[in-house]
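Quick question about two entries, pasted in order.
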Amino acid sequence: MKPDRVAFTEKRVADLKPPAAGRRYAYDARTAGLAVCLTSAGARTYYIYRKVNGRPVRLRLGTTSELTLDMARKTTVEIVGGMIKGIDPQAAKRAKRQEPKLRQLWAVWEIHAKAHKRAAGYVEDCRKWTKILEPWAGDRRLSAITKRDVITLHAKLGTENGPYLANRTINLLGAMFAKADDLGFSGPNPTKGVQRFPEEKRDRFLHGDELPRLFEALKQAPPLIQDFILVCLLCGARRSNVQAMRWDCIDFVTRLWRIPPDQSKSKVVVVVPLSLPVVAILERRREAVNGSPWVFPAPRAIGKTGHLVEPKRSWHALLKAAGLWDATKGPLDKKTGIPKGAPTLHLHDLRRSLGSWMASGNVSMTIVAKALGHSELRSTAVYARLAVDPVAAAVEEAGNAMLAAGNGSTASGNGEQNRPTLITTPT
C-alpha cells in the first residue's frame, strides 16, 4: 500500500482522518522525512522517518499540540542533515538509557574501598552511603547529579550535621566520581569546585581539672563503655582500632598489642605498648566476653562487624554527666530551632590526650610519635608546643637566676624588691 503523501499545512494535518483501529502515518510532500502518526484515539504526533544504513529509523518529535508545523519542519531538516552525515539520532537516547546510576557507581567504589582502605574507613564510607547518599541520589543517573545539587546537599548537611560530616560526605562523593570512568562515564565530577566548610584543626585534650569529672561520670556508665573509654585514653590508639581489638593480637607476656596492617592507617603493623592499668582492664574484659574473639564485642552485631562500633550515644551521655557538653552549639532542632548541643570533647581527643600529657612531661617528639603510631613526625607537630612549655619554664628560671646573680641578689621570688634589673647590651 502506497503511503499517504500530503503537502502539510496546519489545517490539512488537523483534517487528516484517523484510522478505525491502530495507527497510520501520513508523510509531508514538502519536507523529506517528516511524518504525522494518527491513532484511532485521535492523537496526532510528528515523527521523523528515514532509513539509515538500510535500517528504518523512526524518531518522535512531539504532538501537534506541542509543536507547530514550522518547528517540526526545521527540526526535521536539522536531524535529517545529520543522518545524511552518518549521525545516529537514536545513539544519544540509547546512551542516556544505558548511562550508569549512582548506586552502580557505589558498587564499584565499595569493591575499591574494601580492598584499599582501612576497615574503619570502609565502614564509615558504607555508613555515609546508607544514611546520606543513597536516599539523596535515589535512582538518578550520574549526569543528572549537578554541581548545584551537591552544593545544596553540602549546605544542608553543614546546617543539620556540622561541617566535618558535610565535608567528608562530599569528599566521598567526589572520590566515587573519580572512579566513574570504570563504568564508561566521562561526564564532569559535580563535586569539583564545591567550596568546603573551614575546619578548625583540633588540639583539644583532657585537662587536669576535667579528668576527675570524666572519671566520676564513668562510674555510672556500663562496664563495656567504661573499659572502652579507659583503653582509648591510656593506649592512645585510634578509636576504630580499639573497637576492633582482638585477643589474638595481644601478648600479655610482653604487654604488646599488634595492630595488623589492614587496620592501621600507615598500612604497616603498629605495635602498641600496654601499661599495667590497661593490662588489668584487658584481663577483666577477657573474663567478661565469654569466648568472643573481640575485646569489645557488640551487644548485637551492629553493621555485622561483631564488635563495638562508635558508641556515640553513650559518649554524649557521659559528656553531659561530666559537664563537658556545650548546649549553645550544634545543629538546630528542626522543630524548635534551638541548638541540640555539641560535645566539647571527641572520642579522638582521648588519643590526643595521651600524646599531650606525654609532651607536657617533656617527652621527646620521637617517643610521642612512636607511642601514637605516627609514621611521620609532622603528624606529631600538634604536640610540639606542649613539649616547649617545660623547656620555657626552665629557661625562664635560669634566666632569672642569672639576672639575680648579675645584680648581686641571691633572693628569689616575684616581689618588686627582689626583681632583678634587666641588663641591656648594644646590638
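Here is the second entry:
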Amino acid sequence: MIVGDIDESMALPDIGASSVVFSMAVRGLPKGSDELPFLVTATASGEPKICAETLKWTIASLSAGNANSLRKDLCVIQFFFDFCSVFTPSMTVPEEYLDYVIYAYLIWRQNGTLIHDGRSLLAPLRWRAQSALQLRREFITLGRFFWFCSATFGYMPFGHFSTATSPTSPAHDRLKNYHDLKDRDFFTHLSAAREFWAQQLGTSMLVPPIARAPSQSDRGTRTFMQEEEIWEIVRRERNPVFRALWLLAAFGGPRLSEMLNLWQIDVLPASYHLPFLGYEFNSAPLVLKANPMISRYTSSISRPECTREEFFKRHFEGRYRPRPQYLPGNPLRAGWKSMGYVNNTLKISPVYWINLDAARLFDECASEIRDFHRIHKTSRLHPWFFVNTADPGGEHRGLPTRISNVQKAWDRACRRCRLQPHHWNRTIHALRHYYKHKAQKELKIPPEFLQIMLGHRNLNSQRDYGRDSEGVHSSLVAAPQFSNAGL
C-alpha cells in the first residue's frame, strides 16, 4: 500500500480546529475502495502531519470490510481531537477516567457551542447541537477507536496528549455498559460526567448544562431519579444486601422502613404466590410486607398463632422487639406507616414488581442473603432478613441493618457512580417515587391498582384489596414494557 506525501493544500483551516480529514487515491486498497481517508493533525510547531494511530485504524477497518462510513468515522475523531485541544489543553487524565473525556465531548456535541458567549473556551469550534441519533453513532465510533488504540498501542491518543491504557480498564467497562442502553436512557448518565468535570476544573463554565437535564421548573416538581442512574448504581453495587435494597425500592416500591422490617419468612420463592395470593406467578420472588406488630404471619400461613409482637416476647425473651417500637434515635428503630392489606387476617400485602429483570437480580441477592442466614444461624437471634454481612471485625455481623448504615451505603453508591447524592432527587425514598412514575406513566397501571401497589388505604373496603390483587398482577403482566425493561 502506498500513501502520497502531504502537500500545500493540506494546511489546517484556522477555525478553531487542530485537525482535518483528507482523502487520496492509494494503490492496493480492498475492492470497492477508491480512496484512503486519513486524519492530519498539527505538530507543536503548527506543521501538519498524518496521525499514525488513525491511519492504522483506518487500514484495519478497510481490511475488515468497513469502508462505507470510514470517512465519517474519521470526522468524528477529528472533532474529538479538536475538542480535546481546547477542553483539556494541559491536563493529564488518569487511565480510569479516560472515558469521561468522551462523555464531556458528547455533552458539548449534544448542546453545541454556538449557544455560548465568547467567554467559552469551546466557542471557536462553532458546533451546532446534534441529534440523539448522531450522538449515538459518535459514541460508538469513539468506543471502537478507544478499544483499538488500547489493544494495539497500549495508549489512547487525545490529539495533543496520550495516556497509557488497556482494554481491561474501568473506563472500557463503563463504555461497554453504556453501549447497549435504550435511546431514552442513553444520555441521562452524562450528568455524572458533568459533575465530575465541574469538580476537576473548579467551575461549571466549561461544561454546558445537559440538554435533557430537568429545567428549573421541572426540578421543583420531579421527585424521582432517572432510570439509567438507578441501573448504574445497581450495576456497581457489590454488597448483596444493599444491592437487594436498591432493587426492591426502585422496582418493588416499599419504603426503606418497610424493607428493614422484613422478616426472613417474608422473602420467598416465586412458587409461594399461589398459596398466599391465589394465583401462580413463577417469574419473580414473592416479597411480603407484614405489619411488624399485629401481623399473624409468623411461621405458617395456615396456622396463625400469635402476633409478631407476641412472637418476640415468646422467642427472644426481650432481647429484641418490633423495630417501630424503638424510640427515635435508637439505631434499631425503623418506623411503619399504615397501609392496606391483601390478606386482612394475616395483615400482609405483597410487593408488585414492575420489572422482571430487577426481580430476578433481587432473587439472586436474596439467595446469597439466605445462605448467610443459614451458615450463621441468625434466626436464633432475631427474625429479620436484611442484616450486616460484610462487617470486617465481626462485631455486628448478622445483626439487623440500621437505617443510618443504609443511608451511608447509598451515599457511597452514588459517589461510586460519580453522582452527587441528595442532588436532583438522588435519595432512597426517590426510588419509591420512580416506582410510582414508572407504573403510572409508562406501564399505564390504572389508579385504583396503583393505590394497591403503593399500599394506600383509600379504596372502599378491605374486600377490594383481596379481590383486586390478581387484577393488579394481570394489569402488570399485560403491560408491554413489563417483561423487557431491564439491563
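Reply: The chain has two domains: 8-213, 227-478. The mean pLDDT is 78. Hope that helps.
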